[in-house]
Amino acid sequence: MATIQGQAAPYPARLPTRVHAVSHFLARQTTYRQRFLAMGTEVLMTVAADRRSKAAVEQAMNTARHLLIDFGREAWAWGGGALAQLNRQQAAGQVVSIPPSLHGLFAKAWEIHRSSGGLFEPRVAALVRLWGFDDPARLRSAPPDAGEIAALRAALAAAPDYDGGLHYGPAPQTGWDFGALGKGYIVDRAIDSLRAAGFGDVSIDAGGHVATRGTRDNRPWRTGLRDPFEQGEQAYVLASLQPGEASVVTHGDDQRGFEFEGCRYSHLLDPASGWPAQGLRALTVVHADGALADAAGAALFVAGRQRWPALARQLGLNRVLALHADGSASATRTLARELSWKRSITLSLVD
């Protein structure tokens, strides 16, 4: 265990609330940005391209934007989209038909569910709603009744496995929630659409999920990791890194949750108990597969301080950072070498 001192790096100590494009007449590329709401968060899409490509860039970005917005509607567990309708039928005890447009998402979710030993659980929609984590307007100030939690946990335990087909159930009192997978899944596809249009220098920041490809003016993209221990109107950066051709996904207990009698309850539920996972403040995964980084990050958070290293090895993840509730951190050696720290922190290295 060592105390890591902050290192100078080309990244601000605080993240600005708005990002503005800065042009330079000698630059070989122009930076194009679109900022919009999708999947319940603000999304910043950035493309670096030749100045003469403006019309083509805007068309490609519009296509990617609509892909993200449409996914946010259709793959949201609640509301009026395709997944919400399926969940209402499933909760009522019906055998449900999985929309072909979402079949790949279901298959990916179940693949990671199995490889994580069930620590990533995509069928927790009923529990998420009981805890009030489905909508900021419904956020609770105290835990729900333990009996209600136990009943939904029992329903989840009785639910059948997903066989990869186009039907599922019956699985009453359960529902699918891709909140810990969906961003990674669809952001990768949005980037694929931009690259197919000829624009390979891309960054998409979707609220806790940053994916980068290519470069900007022949320099690697750089992104920051927010410091959950610093509270305020502006987000503080704990460390920064150059992801390369990868996604950087952070799950934290400060993203959605409440405090009750001195205990923090976050939206990251342990499927084995039906209660929020405890012990970590945040966990970051960097990986080329955005969906895996997203879902595996949730599983590692649930695994906790002692068990996440073994699960990371099992899943083939070698770029992981965990921030502990006591203010210390642990990280894989690979990622630790890549991080530029903004302040001192006690760090344990994991093989």
Q: What's the layout of helices and strands?
A:
Elements: E1 2-4, E2 30-38, E3 41-49, H1 54-74, H2 82-91, E4 96-97, H3 103-115, H4 125-130, H5 146-158, E5 167-168, H6 182-196, E6 202-205, E7 209-213, E8 215-216, E9 219-220, E10 223-226, E11 237-241, E12 246-252, E13 257-260, E14 263-266, E15 269-270, E16 275-276, E17 280-287, H7 290-315, E18 320-324, E19 329-332, H8 333-338, E20 340-341, E21 345-350
Parallel strand pairs: 19-21
Antiparallel strand pairs: 1-21, 2-3, 3-6, 4-5, 6-7, 7-12, 8-9, 10-11, 11-20, 12-17, 13-14, 15-16, 17-18, 18-19
Helix pairs in contact: 1-6, 3-7, 6-7
Describe the structure.
With about 350 residues, this protein is α+β, with helices and mostly antiparallel strands. It has 8 helices and 21 strands. It has helices at about 55-75, 80-90, 105-115, 125-130, 145-160, 180-195, 290-315, 335-340, and strands spanning about 1-5, 30-40, 40-50, 95, 165-170, 200-205, 210-215, 215, 220, 225, 235-240, 245-250, 255-260, 265, 270, 275, 280-285, 320-325, 330, 340, 345-350. The strands form 6 sheets. The chain has a 10-stranded mixed beta sheet. It has a 3-stranded antiparallel beta sheet with strand order 10-11-20, with no helix packed on it. A two-stranded antiparallel sheet has the order 4-5.
Order of helices and strands: EEEHHEHHHEHEEEEEEEEEEEEHEEHEE
Tell me roughly what share of residues is in helical segments: 25-40%
Radius of gyration, in Å, reads 20 Å
CATH fourth-tier homologous superfamily of the domain at 1-17 and 245-351: ApbE-like domains
